[in-house]
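Our preliminary data section would be incomplete without showing what the modeling component actually yields. Below, a chain of 165 amino acids is followed by its predicted structure, encoded as tokens that our downstream tools consume directly.
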Amino acid sequence: MWIIIVAAVLLVILLPVYIIVLSRALAHHEIDDLHPLLISPDHPDVLRSKYLWVIPMYMGAPISNYPNWVARVKRLRSDGKIIGLHGVRHQDAEFGQELSDEYIDSGIQEFQKAFGFYPRYFKAPQLILSKKNRKKLEDRGLKIKHKVNQVLHTVYHSPPAPPST
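Predicted structure:
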């Protein structure tokens, strides 16, 4: 009888782990934190990812100020990759605190200015998103990717920016 109990316990514990591992192995890859100050569009992690999560104004530097970088990311979109909005400045769990409409719109507008299209997808930096900000983003037609997405897919992160001097 104890063998059945041990087997049942192992099944309950190991089956979800197996499902997650298998799902991550078979699912698409994503890369967070794309910005010209952080990573090249030619980086292997970018090239192997389906979703590219772009920070429009990291460290106060608008992506539209880097037209060559933007053009290379746009070419990746034509190859079937999906470019999504990943915060505005990506600072201090910014979407965990209530943000003004103007702040949110500034990120969307910078994304649209650079890429020439409105973002369809949003993923909050550090996956922290208040209910009010979620509603504001959904009211703007953005589809939210959240924690479950992070568990079921392999997600790469850009290397940290070099320290400022």
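Residues 29-157 form a domain with the TIM Barrel fold (CATH 3.20.20.370). Residues 2-26 form the longest helix (25 residues). Preliminary results of this kind motivate Aim 1 of the renewal.
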